[in-house]
Design goal:
The chain has six helices and twelve strands. With 281 residues, it is an alpha+beta fold.
Length: 281
């Protein structure tokens, strides 16, 4: 084979390699565009996921940790959460609604890292359900409910009637209960029972019960200035400025036509019958 023939064969080989690489790159790009990342895909609303795999470890006390539950891609994470706090989150309770359990264990803090047994990321209610199953399977939680008289806040209709807007969401749409600090609360497609539970979880220092007798679901925004009774967005000197919004108790009357009244209420509390340190990973 002469030099010209060798050169021509080598050029054909190079062109073939370039074509193959270009095709592979195009296929990879198309695949990436057609398959959205898992973190943007929600688990269907009617699904009831559990942890497929979950690692539970005692929190490293030598390190500085925040305390949170959050979703990172497909991973559901809990950081520096006491066992009591995990139960509070999982079952949507106030800490005063949990009775029993050995104090040293209930106060011990854990880190949890797991993925659901369904494709996508879970919503808030699904995440709660996942932690319920985890508490039963790994902490051997057993309990029953008993009515107890507790100090609580009751949501009631204020004088003049409610100032609420019926939701614009359609049946089957998702819900939203989100807030910033200083507190601005955005609520979409929530029942009043849901609102009571949300205020209890996020802001107030005692259980909250719905005594409005209002049916349906609502959309609203609520803005106020935090005070020492609230567990989120604690009061600061910068909050007390001219023109600042009123307290939560005044804002809910003025903006929603509702009121929060201190009361005693018969509330089902969780009585723990059994709970153990978590099984090994």
């Amino acid at each position: 084979m002469d030099v010209a023939e060798i050169t021509r064969t080598f050029l054909i080989f190079l062109l073939s390699c370039c074509a193959i690489l270009h095709l592979a790159s195009a296929q990879t790009s198309a695949s990436q565009q057609s398959a959205p990342p898992a973190s943007t895909t929600a688990i269907p609303l009617n699904a009831d996921p559990a942890f497929d795999v979950a690692t539970i470890r005692p929190t490293e006390t030598s390190a500085t940790h925040g305390t949170f539950i959050r979703i990172n891609g497909r991973h559901v994470l809990a950081s520096n959460m006491s066992l009591q706090g995990l139960i509070v989150y999982a079952y949507g309770l106030h800490s005063s609604e949990i009775v029993g359990g050995p104090r040293p264990l209930m106060e011990r803090t854990f880190d949890v890292d797991g993925v659901p047994d369904a494709v996508g990321h879970p919503n808030r209610n699904q995440t709660r359900s996942m932690f319920q199953k985890l508490l039963v399977s790994r902490f051997k939680l057993k309990f029953h409910y008993e009515p107890r008289s507790l100090t609580a806040y009751a949501i009631r209709v204020a004088n003049g009637g409610p100032k609420l807007k019926a939701t614009s969401s359609k049946p089957g749409d998702g819900t939203n209960f989100s807030y910033t600090c200083p507190p601005v609360l955005t609520v979409r497609n929530y029942s009043m029972a849901d609102v009571a539970k949300g205020l209890q979880d996020a802001f107030l220092d005692r259980p909250v019960v719905d005594q409005t007798n209002l049916e349906g679901r609502y959309d609203f925004d609520l803005k106020w200035t935090a005070d020492e009774s609230q567990t989120y967005c604690s009061a600061t000197e910068s909050d007390v400025t001219p023109g600042a919004p009123p307290s939560l108790f005044t804002a809910i009357v003025e903006q929603l036509g509702l009121k929060l009244a201190a009361t005693k209420a018969a509330i089902p509390v969780m009585v723990i019958d059994q709970i153990e340190a978590p099984s090994e990973n």
